[in-house]
Amino acid sequence: MEITVSHYIVLSAILFAIGVYGVMTRRNILVVLMCLELMLNACNLAFIAFSKLHGGMAGHVFILMTITVAAAEVAVGLAFVVAIYKQRQSLDIDLLKILKG
Amino acid sequence: MDLSTVFQSTSLIVPEIVLMLFGMVILILSPIVKNQKNDYFLYVGIAGVVLSFVLNLGRFNSEAIAFSGTLRIDNFSAYFNSLFLFSSLVTVLIAKDYLKKNTPYINEFYALILFCTSGMMILASSVEFMTLFVGFEIMSIAVYILSGFDNTSTKSTESGIKYLVLGGFSSGILLYGIALLYGATGSLYFTEIISNFSASPMYIAGISLVLAGFVFKIGAVPLHQWVPDIYQGAPLPVTGYMSVAVKAAAFAVLLRIVLDLAILPSGYLLIAVQVVAVLTMVIGNIAAIYQSSVKRMLAYSSVAHAGYILVGVAALIADRSVGGQGILYYLFAYTFMNLGAFAILAYLSREDRDCDTFDHIAGIWKRKPMTAVALGVFMFSLAGIPPTIGFFSKYRIFLSAVESGQSFIAVIGIVASVVSAYYYLKVLVYAFMKQDEYGFGSHKPVSSVAITVLAIATVFFGIIPAFSWELAVEASKNLLAIVY
Amino acid sequence: MLAIIVLAPLIGALINGLLYASGISKKLTSKPDNKEVISYIACGAILISALLSTYLFINLIKSDPDSRLIVSEFFTWIPSGEMNIKFELLFDTLSAVMAMVVCWVGFLIHVYSIGYMHHDKSYARYFTYLNIFIFFMLMLVLGNNFLMMFVGWEGVGLASYLLIGFWYEDSLKAYAGRKAFIVNRIGDFGFILGIFLIFTVFGSLNYQDVFSKLADPVFAGGISVSIITAIALLLFVGAVGKSAQFPLYVWLPDAMAGPTAVSALIHAATMVTAGVYMVSRCSMIFNMSPIALNVILAVASLTAFLAATIALTQNDIKKVLAYSTVSQLGYMFMAAGVGAYMFAIFHVVTHAFFKALLFLGSGSVIHAMSDDQDIRNMGGLRKMIPTTAITFLIGTLAISGFPLLSGFFSKDEILASVYNSGNTFFWIIGCITAVFTAYYMTRLYILTFEGSPRMSTEVKKNIHESPRSMTIPLIVLAILSVIGGLIGVPHFMSEGVGLSHFPNLIEEFLASSVSMLPHEAPHGSGFHLGHWALVFISIGAAFLGILIAIIQFMVIPNVLSKKVEKGNIIKGLYKGSLNKWYVDEIYNDIFVEPFNDFSRQFSNFDKSVVDGALNGLSDSVKNLSRKMSSFQSGLTRYYAVAMVCGVILIVAVLVF
Questions:
Q1: How far is B209 from chain A (nearest CA, A)?
Q2: Residue B243 and residue B232 in contact, taking contact as beta carbons nearer than 8 Å
Q3: Chain A interface includes B203 (CB < 8 A)
Q4: In chain B, whose CA is at the least distance from the CA of C635?
Q5: Average pLDDT score over residue span C148-159
Q6: What gap in Å lies between CA B472 and CA C369, rounded to an integer?
Q7: Biggest CA-to-CA distance, chain A
Q8: CA distance A97 to chain B (A)
Q9: Host H or E run for residue C70
């Protein structure tokens, strides 16, 4: 079987869905951050595939940007993780519900 | 693209570069300077914002394309940039008093505000998705940090991580939408997307995901639930900044995308925007009634205001020639009145606790009459009562809805704003008619200047809207036709 | 330059207001020397306006009679499709006269206030309000469209409300402020309706547009007279409220609760004449509607007469002056009612001089009397405070119509024009009112300054002449009251004494901006009085009133008062007059009480039915609100789920 662009797109959609599902269900903040990362990387895959489909470099350049952004986002997220762990000695995202109503 | 074009393009984005440079100077020098008690970096920050503001003024009435068509600098972006820069200036001033004792990292706060603002400025002028995404993330990541800035407060940290997770989630959705649009049309430039347009499901799915990303950022129903939590947890100046500048930036892009890209497979776009606008107004206003925290109430009210602006968007979709001015003017008005409201809360906060519940503002009329009057001005304006800027802008928005033949939305909007008067005036009842029990924070000279300016502007533009209205009209002309 | 005239007081107000708000003024005023800084700012601001308007006024006189008009446009105020309203100022002859009066009388009263309010702790607040008032008043008279007039109109109302309730710690005074506010709202309602109607009929609110359309026979022929009448009457309702005409005059006497200088400025010299200004400004509209003019004449005559009868017996020095103001305003509207707008404005000017003088004089008296206002406790003050007494006497004579003083000329012109228009009945009422005027003013003067002192020894010890900042304005105003009438000497008089080239300044000057109904003396009606006969009748009326008062209160002070107690009819009339003909009580019974009853009834109904329903509604909204916020569980994961649902919804709607 030949691997075509649509296979990559389907794969990226599946990865994206796994990421979304993870954000909705996982309680550990670290895992949630990883799921966010997974979503962004699914997008990267889609970009690469589409870049291949259309030719041109736009998709390639875009994923460099995305990787940078994702790194920055995770860095900030980890800083928060440290702060939260200091405050509560736990990384359960469900415990963060002072703000509600 | 030879070197001279690079230079030429670079010279076009000097205001953004100035902000970035000043921000970096603050970041690099602040650990080196020993005497942290001095406000050197406040002045650096203010200088950066002011310089950028002045440079940005030069952009009015000029049109230019920079970096091979990724950035478009025109009246529209100059208008929005002025709003961002003004609100960041006010935020810095308020934060100076508010954060003084709370945090040792105050200099980084200034730097982050500068970075965030430069991100917004890029966002408002971008006409290409990669630039747009980068601007979007510069803004977002800075705001995540800002909302969790007070790491001693559990609320602030909670707000920060929630915003990061949900915001990252929405960025992911936005990015996937961009990827699908790229796949459908083979380009990231708005112009080329328009010319390669074909009504494929991939295109429509892509554009809906992109829209969803921005609906999240403006805090409209159904993606509004993060708004009250994050607004309540973030430090007060940051909340004011988010509610005004981030929202305006998201709207700036939303307008361009809606008018250029989303309108192509028109279908149910108008109905969708109408439904979202109505739900946003109704849900925002009703949920605000029950709140006991003023900050949270203002958060819901900011959801409702996003709804009013969406009424203008619906008008714009139905008829390009109306609506744009109203939206732009509303964001202008909202900058003054909402920043003012949050500035007063920050002003009344004490070092040991924020001014948060209604009881905390009880009786300010007796203690601080001018503050109470200013609060009255802002609340009147938010409720849309003349002679304030809030009235004129709301009138404009609803008028555009009527002009584009959607009177029923205007009627719902008017009813919703009548409901909103209930909770805005409740603030005034507490401020003017109750006795205080808690006491207020000490006098904050810089903030009080900022509040005075905002209050005067709120009334002044309410009485004499002509100048500012002209600006909005000029800027909205860039929305009239696709002119890339 | 016009803008500076208007803005200078506003800037003064801003500076003083900021000083007050920031608490700096409290620190300043703790040292009495520094208090003057505040008053210099306030007076200086007005002086700038006054000097500039004088300069423009002189230019206006010098210029060609046909081009006596300065319009300066600043910016488009309300851009809104057709309704393009500009922020424009107009300096034509009518507004020039008004601006001069407002600025100069305002300046004198500011100066007077320095002394009068010296001991007050809210010194800066007082001057802030006063400057705001002048700002709005100038906007009212200098605006070039009805909307600006309305903004000024509301603004002076607000300023007057603030100043009446200036001593708001005293709840009665705060109540008086509220009463003024509410009664004025009724008038304003008519005024704004009139403005709306003007806009729908003429499609513009700009004076020149409206009046040129009205002058255009094609356009004017297309409008029915009844619409013009409706506009005129609605505008007049506004004037009735602001200028305290029957039946809305009740707020003015109560407004005397404010500081006396305020009464002089707002409730005698300037604000209350805004109605007269408005009617004169719209003279073209009123001229087209005979019905409206007749209504004005009737209402004005009734007001003049009724207020004069009430003033006869009042014992509060400021109340007498207040009712006299109402009565004099009636005179002005009588002139307007027969289309003699120039004489109305002429009387506005002279009245501003002598009534401001009288009020300031009474303020000086009250100051001397340690804040007692009852004339029964006064007497013999002439020897103790001579400057005040002499200037007050001049004012009394001027208002009474003593020959060659200012009031004589203006009142005489008004009565003559009423007579010449053929309304003999109203002329007779006017003459009787003139007798009353002379009587009550002389009574006031005599009871206050002549005879033997009746005050307690404690008060007597403290009586002293007022400081110079108070007496100088008195003297200046007294001089103006004497010579002010010379700007409007009728031609037949100047010819009669051989000065045939002595011009009737005001009539010539106003001719370019006010259109006057020509009234030739009625011919062939058999009996007709000439100019001089009319003059002598009004002189006679003045002397009669003065004489009666002198006889009653100086020559035989005891005889008549005994008679009053005996005669039943006279006693009844006396009581009626003393109690202001029970108008307040009647209003209370007719309007306020039934309204309270109604609202009481209604509130019962309200509690059971409407409240039930409304409470139900608001409860259900609150419940909804509560339920909605229970969706906000605070769980991040839950929000993510909600977001996914939202995104799916958006995609679904757009895709399908």
A1: 12
A2: no
A3: no
A4: B162
A5: 84
A6: 61
A7: 54
A8: 8
A9: strand C69-78
Burial class (CB in 10 A: 0-12, 13-18, 19+), B353: exposed
Cβ partners under 8 Å of residue C342, min gap 6: C280, C506, C507, C510, C511, C514, C516
Mean pLDDT score across all residues of chain C: 78
- Tell me, rounded to whole angstroms, the distance of Cα C358 from its chain centroid: 16
Q: What is the dihedral of CA C194, C196, C202, C206, to 10 degrees?
A: 90
Across C588-598, average pLDDT: 62
Nearest CA distance, C277 vs chain A (angstrom):
59
How far is it, in rounded angstroms, from Cα B375 to Cα B365? 10
CB B168 within 8 A of CB A74: no
- Give the integer Cα–Cα distance in Å for C152 and C70: 19
**Ordered alpha helix ranges (H), B359-444:** 364-367, 369-383, 389-403, 407-433
Instruction: State the DSSP H helix or E strand holding residue B64, giving kind and residue range, or none if neither.
Output: strand B64-66
Q: In chain B, what residues touch A47 (CB-CB under 8 Å)?
A: 179, 182
- Cα(C330)–Cα(C319) distance, integer angstroms: 17
- Whether residues C637 and A25 touch (CB distance < 8 A) is answered with yes
C291-309: average pLDDT: 87
- For B58, residues 6+ apart whose C-beta sits below 8 A from its C-beta are none
Mean pLDDT of C556-574: 55
Round the CA-based radius of gyration of chain A to a whole number and report it.
17
Q: Which C residues in the span 603-642 are in contact with A, Cβ-Cβ below 8 Å?
A: 629-630, 632-637, 640-641
Cβ of B157 within 8 Å of Cβ of A83? The answer is yes
The pLDDT of C581-588, averaged and rounded, is 66
Q: Which two tokens stand for residue B419?
A: 């409901």
Cα dist from A5 to A11, A45, B172, whole Å: 10, 10, 21
At residue C169, the 3 state secondary structure works out as coil
Give the angle subtended at the CA of B185 by the CAs of B180 and B188, to the nearest 5°.
Answer: 75
Distances (CA, A) of B187 to A62, A83, B129, B385, B479: 11, 41, 9, 47, 22
How close does chain C come to A95, measured CA to CA in Å?
Answer: 8
**Over residues C445-460, mean pLDDT:** 78
Size of chain A in residues: 101
Architecture of the domain delimited by A5-89: Orthogonal Bundle (1.10)
Q: Which of B130, B155, B186 comes nearest A54 by C-beta? A: B186
Instruction: Give ipTM to 2 decimals.
Output: 0.96
Confidence bin at A81 (pLDDT 50/70/90): very high
pLDDT in tens, B64-90: 888 888 898 989 999 999 999 999 999
Q: How far apart are CA C496 and CA B129, in angstroms?
A: 93
3-state helix, strand, coil in chain C (%, to 5): 80, 5, 20
Q: Are B165 and A32 an interchain contact pair (Cβ–Cβ within 8 Å)?
A: yes
The two tokens of residue B354 are 């924020």
Residue of B139, B213, B203 lying closest to B174 (CA atoms): B213
Q: How many CB atoms lie within 10 A of CB B35?
A: 6
Share of chain C above pLDDT 70, in %: 78
Q: Between C289 and C576, whose confidence is greater?
A: C289
Predicted confidence (pLDDT) at residue C21 exceeds the cutoff of 70: no
pLDDT of residue C582: 66
* Span C333-348, pLDDT tens digits: 988 888 888 888 888 8
Task: Give me the residue spans of the domains in chain B.
Answer: 267-484
Q: Give the separation between CA B283 and CA B300, rounded to whole angstroms.
A: 8
C344 and C280 in contact (C-beta within 8 Å)?
yes
Exposed, middle or buried, B319 (CB in 10 Å: 0-12/13-18/19+)? middle
Q: Name the pTM for this structure.
A: 0.63
Structural contact between residues C461 and C455, judged by C-beta atoms closer than 8 angstroms:
no
Q: Is the pLDDT of residue C526 over 50?
A: no
